[in-house]
Amino acid sequence: MEDTIKEIKSRVDIVNLINEYVPLTKGGKNYKGLCPFHKENTPSFMVSPELQIFKCFGCDKGGDSIRFVQEIEGLEFRQALEFLAGKAGVALKTSAFTRSPDEMKAKKILELNSLAAEYFQYILKNHKFGKKALAYLKDRDIKDAAIDIYKIGYAPNSWDGLIRFLLKRGYDISLIAASGLVVPKDNNKGFYDRFRGRLIIPLRNERGEVVGFSGRSLGASEPKYLNSPETLVFKKERFLYNLDLARSEIKKKKEAILVEGYFDAITPFQEGFKNVVASLGTSLTSGQLSLLKRFTDTLIIFYDTDTAGIEASKRALNLAQSAGMDVKVGILSDAFKDPDEAVRKDKMYFGKALESAASVYDFYFEYAKKRHNVKDALEKKKAADFLLPIISEITHTVHKAHYIKELADLLDVSEETIVQSLKKYGTNFGAGRSYSLEKKVSSPKISSQEYILALILSSPKELAQKTLYKLSSDDFTQEIANAVFVKLKDYLLSKERFLLRNFCLKLSPHENELVEKLHLMELPVLEFLEEDEAYLEKEIKKIFDIINKETLRRKMREVSYLLKQAEKRSDKRLVSELQEEFLRLSKKVTK
After folding, report:
1. CATH of 101-234, one of 3.90.980.10, 3.10.20.310, 3.40.50.920, 3.40.190.10
2. How far apart, in Å, are the Cα atoms of 558 and each of 333, 548, 551?
3. CA 20 to 30 Å from 448, out of 31, 93, 404, 549?
């Protein structure tokens, strides 16, 4: 199995792999980009093509290509290996892993769901039963290409059509039941199809696997939408519709459009708004946000324009903000009830609404206007009670002044009245938490001993050897740095060709961790290496002098201690010798 893992890793270049998720730029021997695992403005995420590893110096996540896939895709080791094996074109033996019963069952459910999706689409496109559903899709301006992309289908109004189809294909009824596609009869003697006489929308996870289904009623049947229950493969709390198709565009545009329903995602997507996902209903969850944050930190919420939709936008906004996301809210005119209708009736208008998405505070003002009739005194008070605590949280003086004026105009009162009202929320006009710009994240501070090791590791072999000759083990007081120095000196001064990955094989786990960190660190001096090797040599000399003086000062402290001991014993000869030694060291330090 170890050989298979090595083969997979050798065939998948980590730079190309990570570049699919994070735009990387070359910086010296390594690549860098914004970390996909935490929010940052300054790149601290480094990738080494030589060692085929990554490390973020901001959140400390790191590892090889398998670890990256585990983190970015939320997969277990085996799943990540299978994912990479697919990319590498390497066949994994089924005996390579011992799957748990649930894992085996989940894999079978995914296969069964995929087959069920084919069944539903066949009925839609090739059977007379599907004509009504096709007409419905045409009325909604859903194109044939979108029907194929989304694998939209139709469930005939039959009690057991799907059951019979799946049983003929060899699937056990217990597995079909576990998929949620069937419902047990009241007498518990058998099952019937969950979806009957409904348009079928397959639900695919971020990897494109069919994990469930949603059936839309085409008549008066209730509910309008009937969804699969939660199963081993379908967890509503961590599911976003259309993420499999939108994820690349979300990464490219660095923002996601969040809508409520299926057609709110399908219609914009087919019309060119490719970074749209749906939360399926009005209750955005922290699990969905966690999933989305793997691809972006910026969210534009475009929920329905009815009261429920506005309330949902407010809840989603608060949740997204608490998750550390940058949030805007798309506001549609009352002429459109949702993004689906807006795109179908006026695609250009929707594009403009997207570009002019409201800030958090503008949305809250729009929310207050729709919820409260400020011509009425009681409603005016309710609007004030809602908006005042929100304004009190604004920290920027000019920003706060703007919304104080907005609220004064909305309520038709003086700005002074608003300023006085804000005092009961614990803030005065202009007061608030002071600005603090995000601290720039870069490589961590390291000692001069570690720094010179980093420079040696990055140097041409001759320069590295010359530097190593000048240094001794006494110059490295840090235990791990000392061990790395000794092994590096032995390796570099040998006749063996220096390959960093081979050198790492000679190290203990702690030593290897240090070398990987030093190798991945962004060293400004290396930017000039290709143009001027002498620049690197000067930097090495400068650090060598620092280390040399550190060693001399350490020896001076040792001599000083011995001198005090000799004076206590009145050993005049030794005192004289130590004084001379101290003076000699002192002169070297001050050179």
Report:
1. 3.90.980.10
2. 79, 15, 11
3. 31
